[in-house]
Design goal:
Elements lengths: L4 H9 L4 E5 L3 H11 L4 E5 L2 H8 L6 E5 L7 H10 L8 E5 L5 H9 L2 E6 L4 H36 L1 H25 L2 E7 L8 E5 L1 H5 L7 H6 L3 H17 L1 E9 L5 E12 L5 E9 L1 H47 L4 H28 L7 E3 L1 H12 L7 E6 L7 E3 L1 H17 L5 E12 L10 E10 L6 H4 L19 H11 L3 E7 L3 E9 L8 H13 L5 E5 L3 H13 L3 E5 L2 H11 L5 E5 L7 H11 L5 E5 L15 E4 L4 H12 L2
Parallel strand pairs: 1-2, 1-3, 3-4, 4-5, 12-14, 18-19, 18-20, 20-21, 21-22
Antiparallel strand pairs: 6-7, 6-10, 8-9, 9-10, 11-13, 14-15, 15-17, 16-17
């Protein structure tokens, strides 16, 4: 133990000396590190280049350098170390398994080595040699530190007066900086007597007026009077315990001068004052913004949880809907129905399609669906939505559309936008139990770089739904977008409507904005990106789909699906289109059929999720038998991006789909 107190302090304050070990053999590095770890911190390098990089990042007591390495060998590395001013004085011990001849030893010493250690290394000898240089390094560093300290003290004595003045100036500047920092923070520091409830606290830092709106600090009693009713009892009890506990940290809501409640975190500690009277020193921190961020995080977690749930049920639900819609389509094709029967069939089909819409809305809400954005004409959309809602709104509600002729086309999924606007219109109807007017308007809007919607700058189409209903209370306005939050009676709403609209707008690259006033009504606006292209006219789109469904040749199709109802319905639809169908309940059975039929199979249509073998695996195995065999993979999953490693040229369809889409996919493959 050194007797010099300063030496002890110097050694304690410094980190352990470091040793650099360079060897291209990892086993050697591990063995050498184990030996040297006891006397110093070890840094290892597996090449000369890596060793040179380490030398740029600090000092080393000694370098253990292997002579023979690929790339830069030990001699070359040592030469470069010696050529650098900052490293040329570091001792180098060469490690060698061969070449003990004098010529090689002399070459090493000429390159700057101070010693040689031959492999296999004797741990005791190596540790002893390294310890010498580590101790020398530590002593040298200690001497340098002492010399620097003594020189600093000498200089200090010469400049004592000037330094004192400079410290005072720096202290004043630091106090000003600290005051400025505290002034910029949402915090106030105060001091008051523990037993004084009627006097005003002394504000010793920060800006209480900016936090509360009051120019002078309220007394303790006045402060308690403005506590939120739900927090008052808890806070008053905490204040009462302050005298015995000696400290307190409590968060609460407090009504500011503008009558708005803000979240404050108050922290206090009791100290003995100069006169013996106990004083309370404390701080008040505005936590409102943090609370809002926490609320947004909880909202995001809710969205994620519901998204996972929705994605999980979408596959099974889409399979069921595919079977139902396919069966209904077959009935419509194969059975001649009376008018009343056709109406029942149409109502049943519409109900099943609404189930499909519900899945899409849930997926839009959770932002997990695969949207199909395209140019959307608001005039076309207003016509289709008006027809759908003509018998839904009732006689007490008037629906008005304001769509200017120069309106841009929005770039969004048309079906989802239609659902979103229908949802907003129905919400508006429900907000007007005594009747009223709903106005759906649209306009072009240019968004700048800095905007309240957190959108990228550019051109957008704003679609607004305005009602003259009861309005939304200000304290509920921020919650209406939360999933499952609703002000309607039980059974009158799920609380998902606005959340779904919000999810669709976000996923489409847009935003939603709500303005409301109690007794005056509500306006909900959706902002969607502008499309650079024009929307396709409905007649032209229908003609394109019809032409695509007609342009197909009869094919021999191998259909694979483990869901019996879906497979049988799809087989019947394909048969109606003129194709010959070979059915299989799984991948192995399908491969057996393919092996038997050979070149007779023109196309594979397979489900993705099947036991034993997925659709992707089955297509890959099939192409080993028939290279380049066309294939369509059908899935009930919402997110097709989850289907990995889809073979080249394979089309992916999401269930449920109309026969026209399947026919179009087959025709597209045929035309390749």
């Amino acid at each position: 133990m050194p007797k010099d107190k300063d030496a002890v302090i110097a050694l304690d304050d410094e980190e352990r000396p470091r040793v650099l070990i360079v060897d291209d053999d990892k086993r050697n590095l591990l063995a050498l590190k184990t030996v040297v770890d006891e006397v110093a911190d070890v840094v290892v390098a597996s090449s000369g280049e890596e060793a040179l990089r380490h030398l740029l990042n600090g000092e080393f007591a000694v370098i253990l350098l292997d002579v023979f390495m690929p790339g830069l060998d030990g001699y070359e590395t040592a030469q470069m170390i010696r050529s650098r001013e900052q490293t040329k004085r570091i001792p180098i011990i060469f490690l060698s398994a061969v070449n003990k001849e004098a010529a090689h030893l002399n070459r090493g010493y000429a390159m700057g080595a101070v010693d040689y250690v031959f492999k296999p290394v004797d741990p005791l000898i190596l540790r002893t040699k390294v310890s010498v240089f580590v101790d020398l390094f530590a002593k040298t560093r200690q001497i340098q530190q002492r010399a620097a300290q003594e020189q600093a003290l000498l200089d200090e004595n010469y400049r004592i007066q000037a330094e004192k003045l400079r410290v005072e100036q720096a202290l004043r500047a630091a106090e000003m900086r600290h005051a400025a920092v505290i002034q910029s923070l949402p915090i106030a520091l105060f001091l008051r007597a523990l037993d004084d409830k009627s006097g005003q606290p002394a504000i010793i830092g920060g800006n209480l007026e900016r936090l509360t709106g009051f120019p002078s600090p309220p007394t303790v009693c006045e402060w308690q009077d403005r506590l939120h009713p739900e927090d008052r009892e808890r806070v008053v009890a905490g204040y009462a315990d302050l005298e015995t506990e000696g400290k307190l940290a409590i968060e609460y809501r407090w009504r500011c001068a503008d009558d708005e409640y803000r979240y404050f975190l108050e922290q206090m500690i009791v100290l003995a004052g100069e006169s013996g009277q106990r004083e309370v020193v404390g701080s008040i921190l505005d936590m409102t913004e943090r609370r809002e961020l926490e609320s947004q995080l909880v909202q995001a977690q809710k969205l994620d949880a519901i998204g996972k749930l929705t994605g999980g049920i979408a596959h099974d639900f889409n399979n069921l809907l595919a079977a139902v819609l396919g069966g209904l389509d077959l009935i419509g094709r194969r059975v001649e129905l009376k008018d009343d029967q056709s109406k029942i069939l149409a109502m049943t089909r519409r109900a099943a399609e609404q189930g499909t819409d519900l899945v899409r809305r849930l997926l839009a809400f959770s932002r997990r669906q695969q949207l199909q954005p395209a140019p959307v004409s608001m005039k076309q959309l207003s016509a289709s939505v008006g027809d759908l809602l003509s018998h839904t709104l009732g006689g007490l509600v008037e629906l008005e559309w304001e769509i200017p002729g120069e309106l841009w086309c929005a770039y969004a999924d048309g079906a989802q936008l239609e659902l979103a606007i229908m949802n907003l219109i129905i919400n508006a109807r429900d907000a007007m139990p005594e009747g009223g007017q709903i106005r759906v308007s649209a306009c072009n809007e240019q968004i700048g770089e800095a905007n309240a919607y957190e959108l990228a700058a550019g051109d957008y189409v704003r679609v607004s739904v305005t009602d003259t209903g009861t309005g939304i209370a200000p304290d509920l306005l921020e919650r209406v977008l939360e999933p499952f939050f609703t002000t309607k009676e039980i059974g009158k709403g799920s609380g998902l409507g606005l959340s779904m609209v919000y999810g669709f707008a976000k996923q489409s690259g847009g935003a939603i904005h709500i303005e409301s006033e109690i007794g005056m009504g509500t306006t909900v606006a959706i902002l969607l990106p502008r499309s650079e292209l024009k929307a396709v006219e409905p007649d032209a789109a229908a003609e394109q789909a019809s032409a695509a469904s007609r342009e197909h040749a009869r094919r021999n199709i191998l259909l694979t699906d483990d869901h019996n109802e879906v497979r049988q319905t799809t087989a019947a639809l394909l048969s109606d289109l003129g194709h010959t169908i070979f059915e299989a309940t799984g991948g192995p059975e399908a491969l057996d059929i393919l092996a038997q039929k050979g070149d007779a199979i023109d196309l594979i249509i397979t489900d993705y999720a099947m036991p034993a073998m997925s659709g992707v695996q089955m297509v890959r195995r099939a192409r080993e038998i028939r290279p380049g065999l066309p294939a369509i993979i059908v899935t009930g999953y919402a997110d097709t991006d989850e289907i990995k490693d889809v073979p080249a040229g394979v089309t992916v369809l999401v269930k449920p789909f109309p026969p026209e889409r399947l026919a179009k996919a087959i025709a597209k493959i045929q035309n390749r």
